[in-house]
């Protein structure tokens, strides 16, 4: 089994869990091992780096999602990759009652001869049905991008049924997982040039009925606490970082110049005293 095919990173809090999936979702997916680690009543899954899903991966994903529903956990999907969107459209119960909050749309730039992907929020496309691919310009050459799929099939999951509008609580939690990132990406897509500098903002209000309150992000907030790879054994309920992820420094620590100078001076003084005592007989 190739353990590098699939990776899952998880961060938990009192109100929700956040899982980021990466790689190939097949029979070696390890989804079941994530269940004991989940906390809160909402699970946000970042599927932006899922590159392929096999038939076995589809089977396990559907069973995993159904188990989440049985446990009363609300599933929210963000940044769904084109491979993930394909399965949403092909498999009737692939997402079930989950909310597809945002997904990526494939484009092609004929001038640069490069494939591009643009991130959009599902709710932003539901005003006019059937859905048509939004217009974007290449951030490299400024030319118009061409939608690189078939509109009727790619947006079928939105056209075939009324897309669920995320409630305020879901929006607040998504903003907390990736504060202000999606808004900045949308601005970049629309204008082609926008400053992405400045501190990110995080939603600190936890009351669903109140307006969100934004505050500065603590350092390394977006870092994921734990990475899980390979097949799960008995999974302990711990947040300790796996041993294979702990970075170790095998190089000896270098001494600072000031410390070396002080050491040399001390050695010279000691040697001088020894010589003095030997001559004087003290």
Structure in words:
By secondary structure, the chain is an alpha/beta fold. It has a single domain (6-245), classed as STAS domain (Transcription Regulator spoIIAA). The chain is built from 7 helices and 11 strands. The strands form 3 sheets. A 6-stranded mixed sheet has the order 5-4-3-2-1-11, with helices on both faces. Strands 7-6-8 form a 3-stranded antiparallel sheet. Strand 6 and strand 7 (114-121) form a beta hairpin. The longest helix is centred in the C-terminal third of the chain and has 24 residues, at 257-280. The protein is elongated and about 105 Å long. The termini are far apart.
Summarize it:
The protein has 282 residues and is of the alpha/beta class. Helices cover 28% and strands 23% of the residues.
**What's the CATH H-level superfamily name?**
STAS domain
**Distance N to C terminus:** 75 Å
The rough form would be described as elongated
CATH topology descriptor? Transcription Regulator spoIIAA
Radius of gyration equals 27 Å
Global structural class: alpha/beta
Strand arrangement within the widest β-sheet reads 5-4-3-2-1-11
Number of domains: 1
- The share of residues in extended strands comes to 15-25%
Question: Strand-and-helix sequence, N→C?
Answer: EEEHEHEEEEHHHHEEEH
The number of E-state strands comes to 11
Number of helices: 7
How are the SSEs ordered, and which strands pair?
Blueprint (H helix, E strand, L loop, with lengths): L5 E7 L3 E10 L16 E12 L1 H16 L3 E5 L3 H9 L8 E2 L1 E8 L4 E8 L24 E2 L3 H4 L1 H4 L8 H10 L3 H11 L9 E3 L10 E3 L9 E4 L27 H24 L2
Parallel strand pairs: 2-3, 3-4, 4-5
Antiparallel strand pairs: 1-2, 1-11, 6-7, 6-8, 9-10
